[in-house]
Amino acid sequence: MKKKLLSLAMVAAMSASLVACGGSDGKSGANGSGVSITILNSKTEIQTQFEEMAEEYEEATGVHVEVYNADTDTTVASQVATKYASNDPYTISMVDAKDIYSLADDYAYDLSNEDWVSHTTLGITVNDKLAGFPFCVEARGILYNADAIEKVTGKEFDPKSVATLDDFQKLLDELKAGGMETPVGILSEYWSLGAHWFPMIYEEQADPDAFVNGLLEGKEDLAGNEKYNELMDTFETLVKYNYAKGSASNADREETSMMLAEGQIAFMFGGNWDWSVINQYDYTEHLGMMPVPQNTSDGTNGKLVGGGSKYIFVDSSDATSDEQRQAALDFLNWLVSDAEGNAFLTEKCALVPAFDNIDASALDPLSLSVKSYADANNLVPNYNYLPDDHMTVVGQEIMQKYLDEAIDRAEVAKEVTEYFKTATPIAH
Amino acid sequence: MKTNTMSYKLKQYLLFAGVSTVIFACVVIIPFIYGLYLTFTSWDGVSRNKPFVGLTNYVNAFGDTGYWTSLGRTFIYSAIAVILVNAVAFIIAYMVTSGIKGQNFFRAGFFVPNLIGGIVLGYVWKFVFNKALVEISQTISSGQAKSLLATENGAIAALIIVSVWQYAGYMMLIYVAGFMSVSEDVIEAAKIDGCTGTQSIIHISIPLMTASFVQCLFLTITRCFMVYDVNLSLTNGDPYGSSALAAMHVYNQAFINKNYGTGQAEALILFIICAVIGGIQVYVGKKGEVQA
Predict the structure, then answer these.
(1) pTM as predicted
(2) What ipTM was predicted for this assembly?
(3) Contacts of A85 in chain B (CB under 8 A)
(4) What is the Cα–Cα distance from A357 to A355, expressed in whole angstroms?
């Protein structure tokens, strides 16, 4: 009998907790009088900061903000789609750039009348509708350690002075003569080679989409392409001065980052996300990011490659009331023009803001470099429609060999061309 | 009460095995059938609709040269690793049952690597291969030494070394149990008949321990064919994708290249190969078992 009672009690307790779960939907938030909005956060590493911010935001404005952390085991797009299918969309969804293009027509509210529009160039416009609010900026380029360079050369280092490969080569020779035998580090990870380095060849074309489609159709001549050869010239120079030459495809990311941080090498190809590795070590003061040096006349050697890395769109469907939508728009404005909102982006989350009015001087040096290029509109946009296996095939099977000097440039072009003939294009 | 009616038997079955049957069905049988169904669709792993495409995925799988190369590599890796794991395990099992000093300490010591997860173990050995061994060989031979992990055959060799280190201790336990199960009487009788130590191992102990061999071989073969964790953390396919074993290729196909259906079909082929090899091995092994 006792056992029966106990099990009944268990059943009661469990169903009570189920009811409690079901009850917390929609507008029955803590603040009964105010509006309640929901946010899908797909930058999962800042979920804690987001939740704290939501509480403070509610205290300040009376708007209840519910922050949902995106599942990491499925894509963000599929989670947004599921919510729309059940007619219970998030008021604000944070998604990747390519999701904005597929979701904008049906679900995104036009943001072009907002106050913050004049402060950014990175918003995404789809069919004349400003649909994507850029949440943060990430970019790729050459990371440098100015202290290490100046210690050898004895004069102040200006990244603009090495925009061309010829000048860069001279500096490398000077460093070598001055005692730094191998001033360069190249990450050997396939994502770095296949998703960060090689795509620059497409991204810096006059029309990236046409170029990639040409490759897919087998009509483009990669080996004879000017941009391909310019970037490969630079890559070969980097390989020549690589500290891990000999076992280059086995270079360790941690070690390379440490050597850059401590000034044993002066240059490394990477992005502002590498700060999270570099700051684990005893880094010197003057680090930064510069464009990849190239002997080119198209101006790309004055630009970093990158852009907004997460985008926010506001729901336009009937499932969201006008008050909720207004609250969502106010929230975006708060991020851009309120000191608290700015501090949330730059100080609490350490993100590079996409808006030129936000003071980001507290950011890390790499992010500061990215911010200055972004504000000056000197970013080459990311190309988001490479076939899914591009990263592993081109990065690991082709570029690693090239990094190890096991194959030459003509063979790389031949293998990449062959790869594209069988690759599955991404519909967009 | 009648005990041979259908309903009585069913009740008895449900009473004793009902819960486990349901759980087994939920976590093994149903996912397996669902997985089988997915091999006939061109699902990308995330989308809501799963278009039915018939046998296309199997055609793709058979035409995927990368898969067959990785499978061939897995055969070589497994063949060498299985032999080495069992040889090493048998030898250390013999040593720790022969009454040497501190044998319990050795037993525990050899078993410990098995308690470390494959991912951690991979990173530990990566450090050993890339840093420690390179440093040592540079000191000895003075010159730029290359890490084992930076060469194509070296990476596979490194995988084998780590697998032997990881599994030998576990297999040793089974062999130890095998040695213990051989009755002292038989060994003594053999000695009286003039058997030397080696002869008594070959002609008495090994035939009586066939069950241990069958078990160990089965475990090592299936584990080697399905290995993924050590492969991921030790080499991740580097250099040039030349050390990606079958399971890793399947994972990349399904989740990185987003060809879920093809990946699933390749996984099924891998499963069938494993099941056939394992089945044959157990069947042959059981036939050879000797009763004392």
Answers:
(1) 0.79
(2) 0.79
(3) 48
(4) 6
